[in-house]
Specification:
single chain, 141 residues, 60s Ribosomal Protein L30, Chain: A, seven-stranded mixed β-sheet, 7 strands
């Protein structure tokens, strides 16, 4: 169940109760027409700002679980994702990230960009944002 979306005819700001409880200064998802823009997700444990212990693999898994949960809280799934942007604290983690990433998507994979970034929030190993399409052929919602 989600909070009632804030809307202005063309834009909806979607925030689940769990996300709203964190008190962060951004929206969980902004929907413009059929396009869903998810704010960047990190490997924080649900309902907290504490990163999953265990390094890049654990944070990657938790990041993708957080994205999945965010989408599902609003009636969507990972199958709706069309573009991913991945920011890695260390590009040497690219292969380890890919090993986890490919367990959350099936071919054909979404388009993706990945780049090295210094000073990610919470001292995280990665941050990931996605763009999804609400009316994706073959997907419900």
């Amino acid at each position: 169940m989600t909070d009632a979306p804030t809307t202005n005819k063309t834009v909806e700001f979607l925030n689940s109760p769990a996300f709203s409880a964190l008190g962060l200064p951004f929206s969980e998802i902004v929907r413009v027409g059929n396009t869903l823009y998810l704010s960047g997700q990190m490997g924080n444990l649900p309902g907290t700002l504490t990163l999953a212990p265990g390094g890049i693999e654990a944070q990657a898994r938790q990041t993708l679980l957080n994205i999945k949960s965010t989408l599902e809280a609003h009636g969507y799934s990972m199958a709706h994702v069309v573009k991913c942007t991945v920011m890695l604290a260390d590009m040497n983690d690219w292969r380890a990230f890919n090993a986890v990433y490919t367990t959350f998507f099936t071919p054909p994979y979404p388009a993706r960009s990945a780049f090295g970034a210094s000073g990610l929030a919470l001292g995280g190993r990665l941050e990931m944002e996605v763009i999804a399409v609400a009316n994706m052929p073959g997907c419900s919602a």
